[in-house]
Amino acid sequence: MADPIPYNPQDKGAWPPSLFPPYTSTVKRAPKRPLVLIPQTLSEVTGPVYGHSRAIPEDSDLTKDHTGEPLGERIIVAGRVLDENGRPQPGTLVEIWQANAAGRYRHDVDQHPAPIDPNFTGGGRVITDAEGRYRFTTIKPGAYPWRNHHNAWRPAHIHFSLFGPSYLTRLVTQMFFPGDPLIPIDPIMNGVPDPKARERMICKFDINLTQPEWALGYQFDIVLRGRNATPLDNDKDH
Amino acid sequence: MAYGQTPSQTVGPFFHFALPKFEGPVLVTDKTKGERITIEGRVLDGDGQPLNDAMIEIWQANAAGRYDHPEDQQEKSLDPDFHGFGRCATDKDGRYSFQTIRPGPVPGPGNTLQAPHVNVTVFARGMLKHLVTRMYFEDEKSNADDPILGRIPEETRRSTLIARRKNGKGTPFVFDVVLQGKGETVFFDV
Question: Which of A74, A80, A125, A157 is catalytic?
């Protein structure tokens, strides 16, 4: 077998360092030794692909997980998954999880004294369509305090997990909302070195995505590592 | 490049009700081909303390040495009962465990062959980006010729990538992930 066509490296302006002391939990969890550079083999350019030989249950509406409607501002979050060349990434798994409208997660570890919403769990997953599009209906999460430093608050955010076509395109990120005053002082977001790259994590309000008398629309495109050529002409046959 | 990469952010401490809900630590069914193995271990920080909020993902070839992926065009059989992906959150003691099969060898750079291995990704609160490593098997003679292990000349470092039987034949392979400090696992820049 010919060697695989390599993927572009992680953009150093977009990928945070492992050690970022303002985010105090990184201090004991960041490797001290340099990463070992290895060639991209079949082990790296492959990865779990959904729809290739298996399917998973999808759940795109987080407001429908219980009998009642969750409290909060109903929103639609939709966008495309692309590579660096702007090519849509179809058939990729997009998973999200988030706090409720009061800023509380459905999780034993979350002790923030804000109410749990019995009608909201906060997890969803979809597979992108042929044009790389995804779409979720949910509620806008609240900001919440954490113990990183005195009076620390996380800006409202939705966690995203994506696979893309290979092990190398794996990405876990967070989506923030425009105009949130906590964004400039968030140590997690500020771990990203390039301010322009940070802005890519802020979704855009979209009146065209907004549904009249139903839900506000926010658009959020996600860009994964790309490569310069298509490795196999028959790639689409699968 | 026309489009800038979306940055990585931490998985945080609250992923449990979502990520491990559909993808779990059991990769096999009764029909899966290959030698059943258990892989288990702990995730530890720079103080040797276990992480109770980490998540491990594994990705591996089937028993014949083929990945369930369109880019693997080897003339080896796919196994309809094995896809090669698993996910496990660590417990309160930092432990994870997977039920899988021993993978076959896969092609390496040039015309080399890679020793059987499992690709391992680590996520956690306090990790702004995930880390990737590999787990090899102590009883594979082909480890000596593996092109990736060969890039790590120091024996003490290379040994962090070798899973060892817990208690002899048939018992689980133990693979601890040490994020920092003494015995720090080799992580890869890919």
Answer: A157
